[in-house]
Specification:
Elements: E1 4-13, E2 19-28, E3 40-57, E4 64-76, E5 78-90, E6 96-108, E7 111-124, E8 127-134, E9 146-154, E10 160-168
Antiparallel strand pairs: 1-2, 3-4, 3-10, 4-5, 5-6, 6-7, 7-8, 8-9, 9-10
Length: 171
């Protein structure tokens, strides 16, 4: 069986001025056949239409916590609109870390429906990068059974280049 290690960052807010941050690593594998290989690859651009951000926790000298809502357009092998909800931590050096969930309504591989992407990302030197995973069981209509993982890279002021390796599991 081939496995990989997945990591999720979590923030727990104890009060307005106290928060606990930690990362959880866990083993990921394909529950159906024991392999992590996907049989299709989608290449798309990801254009940001709207970004509404608000700081939610600020403490002098500490990383700023913010939440944002974004609307994005997928063009290419994935066509559609994504609605992203993201939590961010801005570090004093200008870099950032983020986690988010995005509902995508559109088409993948000629199939129509919706699905949810989990984002784990960062911004370094102005370049946004994220690892993506299709949330298991989130596919609807013709996208039922969709599973996958991928990544995107967004240089400052440009559309992101997105790659998603995916497959459809029998339901």
């Amino acid at each position: 069986m081939i496995v990989s290690v997945c990591t999720t960052s979590i923030a727990i807010f104890i009060s307005k001025s106290i928060a606990i941050y930690f990362s959880v690593s866990y083993i990921c594998s394909d529950h159906a056949n024991g392999t992590t290989a996907m049989n299709k690859r989608a290449l798309s651009t990801l254009e940001l239409d709207a970004w509404l951000e608000q700081a939610c926790h600020e403490i002098d000298g500490q990383p700023v916590l913010a939440r944002a809502s974004a609307t994005q357009q997928f063009r290419g092998d994935i066509e559609g609109t994504g609605q992203l909800e993201v939590l961010l931590t801005y570090h004093p050096d200008g870099s950032a870390s983020s986690v988010g969930l995005e509902r995508v309504v559109g088409r993948v591989g000629g199939r129509a429906g919706s699905f949810v992407l989990e984002h784990t990302g960062c911004v370094e030197d102005g370049v946004a990068k994220a690892q993506l995973a299709v949330v298991p069981g989130s596919g609807t209509h013709d996208l039922g059974g969709l599973r996958g993982r991928g990544w995107f890279v967004r240089p400052p002021g440009r559309a992101a280049s997105l790659t998603l390796e995916y497959e459809f599991m029998e339901q």
